[in-house]
Task: structure prediction
Amino acid sequence: MLLDEVLESNKKFVEKFNEIKLSPIPRKKLAIVTCMDTRLTDGFLEQAMGIKRGDAKIIKNAGNNVLNHDVIRSVAAAIFALGVEEVMLVGHHDCGMTRVGAEKLKITMVERGISTNEIAKVDIQKWIGAIESEESNVIKGVEKIKNSSFIPDDIPVHGLIIDPLTGIVDVLYNGYEVQI
Amino acid sequence: MLLDEVLESNKKFVEKFNEIKLSPIPRKKLAIVTCMDTRLTDGFLEQAMGIKRGDAKIIKNAGNNVLNHDVIRSVAAAIFALGVEEVMLVGHHDCGMTRVGAEKLKITMVERGISTNEIAKVDIQKWIGAIESEESNVIKGVEKIKNSSFIPDDIPVHGLIIDPLTGIVDVLYNGYEVQI
Result:
């Protein structure tokens, strides 16, 4: 089982790990909202942005989508409880959430035993958070964060996009206006 | 501005980075749900679990909370669109979300210009996702994922907790039952 493998790796990690007491308050007063994508893990995104352990809060979901209040409340907690003063929403090229088709998804769900009644209750493509374009999704997300009545007006919210192949970061929204 | 600093770091990163074409499909067929905490970034959590870039989908929010449908839809996308077969919800000791008090939070929000009318519309402690105990919050989250009508019954959902100081991972829920 994968759990045993993880626990075995953890034992080896702990033996060699040098304890460093870090504050939960992010050093760079930064919150990053990005995608759960498997290529943005194990330090890649952070290293591509010059972010070290202890520098930033990192929020991740499928498609770096600001769909409902979960991202907003996490960003709000980062601002009001943890001193964050700047937000960067980072999308990425080749996002799997652009390729989610409702019909194929429904078939897979039913095959895996999900109730057709439950599926029929929702607009499945909206429910799962499928996106049309990585760029417009970043802009939309930035605007949702900026327009939330729970986010202070003076917090800059930037919109960026990273290439998971090259690591290149481009600016789509510079905190105040769209750049594309 | 922090954005300029990030772009400057990115230039240096890209110059040295060796491109590797990785699939968006996670090698270990694993999705991890964890906290946005600043100490779990830049590879720490992944390395403590033996997870390499390309191995897993990683979902993060304030307090690794399964509050509304955002975590469920991300896990569902990982399962139905990206071949995930196992889920690990990983809480951590010393979580800032255990220290969020409603009154202090409201004062800070008003000081930062948030409308008292908007604040009065919600139960702010619930809204922000404050938690009482890191352990019980992991168990609750595992149960919410397992009980969702959009998650297949045969997907094991484990509940773990990591110490951000030592890196030690303990099992709270082994996929089938509570371990504490």
Summary: The two ends of chain B are 47 Å apart (CA to CA). DSSP finds seven helices and five strands in chain B.
